[in-house]
Amino acid sequence: MKTTLFFFIIPFVLSSRIEKDDLIFDSVPTEAKSKFAMIDDVKLLANGLLQLGHGLKDFVHKTKVQINDIFQKLNIFDKSFYELSEQTNEIKEEEEQLKKTASKLQVNNEELKNMSQEINSKVENLLQDKIQLQYKIQDLEGRLSKLLQDQPRIPKPEEVSFLKNFVEQQDNNIKQLLQIVQEQHEQLDQQHNQIRNLKEKLSNISSQENRRNSSSTKKLLSKLLSPFSHNSTTKAYEEDGISNDCNDISIGGEQTSGIYSIKPNGSEIFNVYCEFTPERAWTVIQRRIDGCLDFNQTWDSYVNGFGDPNGEFWLGLERLSAITQQADYIMQIELEDWRANKRYIEYTFSLGNRETDYSLYLSQTSGNIPNAMGKQKEIRFATKDHNTADRDAQCSESYSGGWWYTGCNGTNLNGKYMKPRWRGKPEKRGGLLWKPAKGRFYSVKSTKMMIRPTDLDIFD
Asked: Which residue did the predictor score with more confidence, 453 or 225?
């Protein structure tokens, strides 16, 4: 770069010198002309070199900063790669140990099978011997009875008593062998279960290893490539291996509740909050905690969703419809009143699409609180700016928040958040309400709505 600037300045200096020489030659003596021209040339050259020095100094400083950033990122990558390699080696060692254990169990299983076959064959032989002995005993008893009838005082033959003792011993031996066979069968069942569990662990370990390596590699690539490339590269990595719902994520090995990305039924990728329990994997679709989020939203907001999945939020009708179109689902509604009493209710349900105003069809299955939703009836969703032809849906104009209204002054878990009045009396025209068809209504402090697939797939 120095050479380029130097050659760029030299012609300019020479040209200016020639022009000045021509002018000076006309008016000034020759010696004075040459002195002035040389001084001007030196000044121009000095200014050019000074500017060149400043430019080179800035360039060197920026280059050093960029090189330091690159070295820091390379160090981070090396540390992360080293940690990943250690984790991979540990997983491989565990996998090898499990494989060895599985192979040993399979060998023991084969040996137990052979022993069981031998014992079964011996038992069959003993049973045949027993049958033959019983025939002989019956024959001898018949002869003995005849002899006793002919000579009642003749003592009992020793052969018959010996045979009876022998048969009793054989019966005892057969019973012991049968117990041994039963114990062998139980051991075989245990071995089969252990082998099955080991195979499941191996598959889970391999899937977790692949998932962990892929996610860690994605994060590292996104960090390293972010200064040099566009976000499209990272997005291409994220779209691989997206689950359909939280239950699918749980099957993949995840058991920590939190936010995950899903792509149900060919829809766009979006984030959901997954709540994992030892028995179930739930996809949370609504949560109210303390009223920090205004649920008096428009139709478009309820269709697309709003809020923070870690706090108060509404997942969105379009996303909920995409999830429930995949299979049969169960909805669980958890309620907590102002005295910290918690109740729940579960429904089997189906949800329509935008053309049917996301109509809801419910059927109660279980719970410890009375039903306050429409049963065996399609209920259309309504908001303040999107009412349906149903008279009950006009309630959204009087009561804030979008909901599947079944009657004014009824259930509304998306209403305006209001604390109880004096002496704990709830507001009848506001707040989170749960109103069964019979009995009093409940003022709710917090709510949580979750869905999961039904267990009907176990019959497939």
From this structure: 453
pLDDT band at 275 (very low <50, low <70, confident <90, very high): very high
Say how many C-beta atoms besides its own lie within 10 A of residue 153's C-beta: 5
Main-chain dihedrals φ then ψ at residue 57, nearest 5 degrees: -65, -45
Most confident of 96-105, 120-129, 271-280: 271-280
CATH level 3 topology of 242-459: Gamma Fibrinogen; Chain A, domain 1 (3.90.215)
How far apart are the C-alpha atoms of 365 and 453, rounded to whole Å?
14
Q: Which region holds residue 307: left if phi is over 0, alpha if psi is between -120 and 50, else beta?
A: left
Beta pairing class for 281-288 and 313-314: antiparallel
Model-level pTM? 0.49
Helix (H) or strand (E) holding 41: helix 30-150
For 307-345, write each residue's pLDDT tens digit: 999 999 999 999 999 999 999 999 999 999 999 999 999
Cα–Cα distance, 163 to 421 (Å, whole number): 94
**Beta carbons of 248 and 453 less than 8 angstroms apart:** no
pLDDT of residue 97: 86
Alpha carbon distance 444, 427 (integer Å): 11
**How far apart, in Å, are the Cα atoms of 50 and each of 1, 22, 56, 180, 418?**
14, 28, 10, 101, 72
Give me the residue spans of the domains in the chain: 1-241, 242-459
Nearest to 17 by CA among 45, 47, 50, 40: 40
For residue 190, which of 115, 105, 119 has the smallest C-alpha distance? 105
Q: How many CB atoms lie within 10 A of CB 306?
A: 17
3 state SS of 341: coil
